[in-house]
Design a protein that fits this description.
11 helices, single chain, binds adenosine monophosphate, alpha/beta, six-stranded parallel beta sheet, about 40% helix, three-stranded antiparallel beta sheet, Rossmann fold
Length: about 280
Amino acid sequence: MLTFTEKESLMRHLKNLKNQQVSIGFVPTMGALHNGHLSLVQKSVADNDITVVSIFVNPTQFDNPSDLEKYPRDLEKDISLLEPFNSKLIVFTPSISNMYENGLTSDTYFFDNLENEMEGKHRKGHFDGVATVVSKLFEIINPNKAYFGEKDFQQLQIIRKMVAQNGQKVSIVNCPIVREDNGLAMSSRNERLSTKEREEAAIIYQTLKEVKEKFHSENIETLNKLVTERFLPYANMQLEYFEIADEETLKSANSKEANKKYRAFIAVFIGGVRLIDNIALY
Ligand code: AMP
């Protein structure tokens, strides 16, 4: 397994591989790897000759300095989890200055308002940061396929839109959400939860499943109220938002229309840790 810390040497290496018609898969991550990330890596390794995994905690996508500071980092453990993929894998761990040579700023993007819904409303500048870093990484790696988790469904839709707007050739592959045994969506931020908080956090997925079961029999207003009620008994959990939204536009829905696909989205604070999850309602 090769590791690169500088984009220039990675680009030289990939150029050689591409001259030999090697297909390149790409899995961008912020590290603190878990089985959710590894499911993306497995899929890419199965689909491509070589997979590049980037590990880079991208400062420009954090609106909260304390969240950035406390974001879990364990490069040694990450490398050991990737080791078994061996010669099929390249790991890219750039420094901030190598990625942001002209200063730590994001470009401004417009994605037909996808960027202004949910996470965009609650984390100002988040998707400008995400699009900036993913654009940079796509430029460096120029992959045939790139793998994104449905855990960050809004991010996935935004990356699809970005690729379409730029006429980029990379195909975006979506991967299902990997969960803990109790249903909690795997996330690097789960490391910051106590054992009790991890157990209690199971209510997030339980509630999403209840919404899915009742989606056809109940109206959206009733479901919104139901979700608020489910979190009331938990003093240390705050529901930041719950929305049922059109999967294409990500616009919040107040009523159901035939021929549209809906998805429920949720963000919850447990202690100081912010968790997101979603579920398809079809
Ligand atoms: P992150 O390191 O959190 O930026 O995530 C890197 C990639 O892994 C993103 O495409 C995420 O959507 C994906 N991912 C994170 N957690 C999960 C999960 N539990 N299941 C599937 N994909 C995930």
